[in-house]
Amino acid sequence: MAPRVDLEPKPSWNRWDHDGPGVWSTAEDVDRPFHSVAGPDWLERAGKGAHERIAGWRAPKVVGHGDWHRNNFRWRGEELYVAYDWDSAIVDTEAVVVGIAAAYVAPAVEESAAFLSAYQDVAGRRFGRDELEVSWATGLWLRGWKSKRQVVTGEPIRSLSEDEAIRLAALAGL
User: Fold this and answer.
1) How far is CA 28 from its chain centroid?
2) What's 56's DSSP letter?
3) Chain segment 121-153, per-residue pLDDT in tens
4) Burial environment of residue 22 by CB neighbours within 10 A (0 to 12, 13 to 18, 19 or more)
5) N or C: which end of the chain has fewer CB within 10 A?
């Protein structure tokens, strides 16, 4: 029998289920804890709602890639040839893994919707309403995490607007 591999902790941008204080897990390369920087309120509300929606979902766990940065993949034309950076592999529900991928590779709502639809086509099954909402909630949490990182590091928020957060929250059933 093969030894069990420990894939914890997840990278901070995937750690919606962290056990530290506050809504957001702190980035590994940022000295200041995310919870030590206030607001904005709309971002904190969006992150809390997304966290609660994801936490309420019960489904089998799968292993997936957790870092969809373009440098972690090589393509041959339109075909994915190889994925790198498997130290960012995560264990979570399929809805969460797919939600992370959708938000990372296709951050605009319309692009994420197209990604989620294409994923379901390839998987050969349609997600149920709850599963799809959890994928949207995960995308909201991830984009919120990126935005909170921008707040903490003194950058302007560019990963998620308040209007986008409202739209994503509706898609997540919040």
Assistant:
1) 16
2) T
3) 999 999 999 999 999 999 999 999 999 999 999
4) middle
5) N
Model pLDDT for residues 78-99, shown as the tens digit of each residue = 888 888 787 788 999 999 999 9
> How far apart are the C-alpha atoms of 140 and 28, rounded to whole Å?
20
In angstroms, the Cα distances linking 125 to 5, 62, 82, 119 are 29, 16, 25, 9
Q: With beta carbons less than 8 A apart as the criterion, state whether 95 and 127 touch.
A: yes
Please provide the CATH number assigned to the domain covering 38-171: 3.90.1200.10
* C-alpha distances in Å from residue 124, one per residue of 64, 73, 145, 149, 150: 18, 24, 31, 36, 38
- The residue count of the chain comes to 174
Task: Give the residue from 5, 10, 11, 36 showing the smallest Cα distance to 23.
Answer: 36
pTM > 0.85: yes
